[in-house]
C-alpha cells in the first residue's frame, strides 16, 4: 500500500495474535470463533482512521489482505487510488458463504479455505510457453515476465502521453466500481503490475491478436499459491483489437494454486474488441476471475469463453453499454468433467441507452459429480428503448449425480423492447438425433460422442484464431472421452 494510513487500518483491524506467515503455515486458514472475530488490538487509533475504518471486519479476509499488502514492495503510483479503495472495502467485507450471500447461493467456495495462502516472491524458473502470435504477454504466478507488441506495455513502463493518461483515468475509475466483490478487491490490493493494451484511434489490429498467457504453479502440498494478474485494454474511437486470454497450469501435474485475475476493457465510440478466453487450469486449482467491460456509442464487444479446468471456477462478467446502438455478443461453454468440480458464470449486462443489441449463449455439460452454475442478468433500463436482447442457456446432465443450477433473467423497465430468454436442461441427448446416426449404421456410443462434441464445438469454433481454436477442440474432445470413465466411477461410488 502506498499510504501509511491505509496500512495501519489493516493492522488496527487485526486481532491480537501475530500476523500470518504463509511460508511457515501447516494448517488451514479458518475464522476464529465469533466472539473473537472482531476483537481490535490495543494500539492507539487516530481520529481520522477511526472514522474511516468500519466497526466490523472479517479475520480471514483481513489476514489474506495483509499478506497481499505486504507482498507488494513496489508498484506504479497509478495503482494507488484503486489499491487504497479496495483496502478500505476489505475492512468491512465478510467471507461469502452460501447462506450469507445470495450471489454464492449455489457456489461452494470452501475449497479456498482448505489450505493456508502463500504468495509468489519471484517467477518460477520454467521455460516460457511459445505463442503463435507476434504480440504476446506472459504472466507467471501473477508476475509479469514479458510483454511484446506495438500496443502492449507494462503500466510501470508507460511513458508520459496518451496511453498513460488513459490508463491512469481507467484505474482511478475502477476504484469507484460498485459491483465488485472481495475477489476483485483482493486483486486490486495484490496486483504487482498491470499489462496495458492501448490501441489508438482508428487503428485496426483485430486480425493480429494480443495473446496473453497466464501460467500457474503450486508451491507444495501445505499451502495454496495465490496469484493476482491484472490486464487493462483500451480501444479508442473506431479502433479494433483482438485479445486472447489463456490460463493454464505449468510444472507439476495437478498443481494446487489460486488464480485470481482481473481484466478491464474500455471500448470507445465505434470501436470493436474481439475477446477469446480459454481456461484450462489444473483440476486441483481454484480460479476466480473478473471481466469488466464498458462500451461507448456504436461499439461492439464479442466474447467467447471455454472453461474446462480448475476444481473451483467462478467467472464474474460485468458489461455496461454506455451509449446507443451498442452491440454485445457473449458465448460460453463450461465442461465439468471431474468429480466435485464447480463451474460458475455470473454475468450482468446493463443497457441504459436506445437501440442496444445483445445476444448471450451459455452451454454446459455436467458429468460425474460436477456442479455447473449460471446466473445471467440482463437489465434493460428506462431509456434503453428499442433494445433487442436475447439470452439462451442449454445444459446437458450426463450423470445422475451431476448438478446444474441456471438462473437466466431479464429485468425490463423500458416499454418498447424485443427481449427473449430461455433455458433448456436435459438428462439425455435428443433421441431423434441418435436415431439419425443409427439409421446410417453408426453405433450408439459413437453417435453419442459425436453429438456431445458438436454441442461444445458450436461455441469453441466461434474463437476466430485457428491455433487457439484447434487446441481447445482437441482438449475438449480428450476430456469428453475421460469423463465417460469418471462418470462410471461416480455411479459405482
Automatic annotation (TrEMBL):
GO biological processes: iron-sulfur cluster assembly
Protein origin, superkingdom: Eukaryota
Signal peptide (UniProt feature, chain positions): none
Residue span(s) of domain SUF system FeS cluster assembly SufBD core: 224-452
Coiled-coil regions listed in the entry: none
GO cellular component: iron-sulfur cluster assembly complex; plastid
SUPFAM superfamilies noted in UniProt: Stabilizer of iron transporter SufD
InterPro entries in the record: Fe-S_cluster_assembly_SufBD, SUF_FeS_clus_asmbl_SufBD_core, SUF_FeS_clus_asmbl_SufBD_sf
Matching Pfam families: SUFBD_core (PF01458)
Protein name: SUF system FeS cluster assembly SufBD core domain-containing protein
UniProt source species: Setaria italica (Foxtail millet)
Amino acid at each position: 500500500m502506498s499510504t501509511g494510513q491505509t496500512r495501519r487500518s489493516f493492522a488496527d483491524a487485526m486481532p491480537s495474535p501475530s500476523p500470518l506467515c504463509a511460508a511457515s503455515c501447516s494448517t488451514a486458514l479458518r475464522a476464529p470463533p465469533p466472539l473473537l472475530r472482531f476483537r481490535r488490538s490495543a494500539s492507539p487509533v487516530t481520529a481520522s482512521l477511526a472514522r474511516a475504518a468500519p466497526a466490523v471486519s472479517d479475520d480471514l479476509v483481513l489476514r489474506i489482505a495483509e499478506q497481499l499488502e505486504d507482498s507488494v514492495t513496489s508498484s506504479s503510483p497509478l495503482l494507488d487510488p484503486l489499491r487504497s479503495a479496495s483496502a478500505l472495502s476489505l475492512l468491512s467485507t465478510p467471507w461469502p458463504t452460501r447462506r450469507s450471500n445470495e450471489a454464492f447461493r449455489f457456489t461452494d467456495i470452501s475449497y479456498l479455505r482448505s489450505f493456508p495462502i502463500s504468495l509468489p516472491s519471484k517467477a518460477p524458473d520454467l521455460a516460457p510457453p511459445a505463442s503463435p502470435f507476434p504480440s504476446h504477454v506472459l504472466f507467471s504466478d501473477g508476475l509479469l515476465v514479458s510483454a511484446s507488441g506495438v500496443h502492449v506495455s507494462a503500466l510501470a513502463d508507460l511513458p508520459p502521453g496518451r496511453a498513460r493518461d488513459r490508463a491512469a483515468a481507467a484505474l482511478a475509475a475502477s476504484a469507484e466500481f460498485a459491483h465488485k466483490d472481495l475477489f476483485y478487491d483482493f486483486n486490486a490490493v495484490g496486483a504487482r503490475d498491470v499489462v496495458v493494451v492501448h490501441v489508438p484511434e482508428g487503428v485496426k489490429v483485430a486480425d493480429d491478436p494480443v495473446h496473453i498467457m497466464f501460467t500457474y504453479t503450486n508451491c507444495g502440498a501445505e499451502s495454496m499459491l495465490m496469484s493476482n494478474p491484472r490486464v487493462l485494454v483500451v480501444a479508442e474511437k473506431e479502433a479494433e483489437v483482438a485479445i486472447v486470454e489463456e490460463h493454464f497450469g505449468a510444472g507439476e501435474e495437478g498443481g494446487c494454486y489460486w488464480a485470481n485475475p482481473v481484466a478491464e476493457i474500455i471500448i470507445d465510440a465505434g470501436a470493436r474488441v474481439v475477446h477469446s478466453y480459454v481456461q484450462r487450469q489444473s483440476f486441483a486449482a481454484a480460479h476466480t476471475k473478473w471481466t469488466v467491460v464498458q462500451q461507448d456509442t456504436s461499439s461492439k464487444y464479442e466474447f467467447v469463453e471455454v472453461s474446462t479446468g480448475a476444481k473451483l471456477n467462478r467467472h464474474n462478467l460485468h458489461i455496461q453499454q454506455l451509449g446507443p446502438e451498442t452491440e454485445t455478443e457473449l458465448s460460453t461453454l463450461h465442461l465439468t468433467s471431474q468429480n466435485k468440480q464447480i463451474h460458475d458464470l455470473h454475468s450482468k449486462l446493463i443497457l441504459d441507452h436506445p437501440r442496444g443489441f445483445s445476444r448471450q449463449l451459455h452451454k454446459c455439460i455436467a458429468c460425474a459429480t460436477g456442479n455447473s452454475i449460471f446466473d445471467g442478468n440482463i437489465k434493460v433500463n428506462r431509456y434503453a428503448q428499442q433494445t433487442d436482447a436475447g439470452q439462451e442457456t442449454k445444459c446437458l446432465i450426463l450423470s445422475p449425480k451431476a448438478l446444474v443450477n441456471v438462473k437466466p433473467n431479464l429485468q425490463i423497465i423500458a416499454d418498447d423492447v424485443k427481449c427473449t430468454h430461455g433455458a433448456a436442461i436435459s438428462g439425455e441427448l435428443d433421441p431423434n438425433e441418435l436415431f439419425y446416426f443409427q439409421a446410417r449404421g453408426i453405433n450408439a456410443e459413437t453417435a453419442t460422442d459425436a453429438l456431445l462434441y458438436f454441442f461444445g464445438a458450436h461455441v469453441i469454433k466461434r474463437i476466430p484464431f485457428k491455433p487457439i481454436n484447434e487446441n481447445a477442440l482437441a482438449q475438449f474432445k480428450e476430456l469428453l472421452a475421460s469423463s465417460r470413465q469418471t462418470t462410471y466411477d461416480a455411479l459405482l461410488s
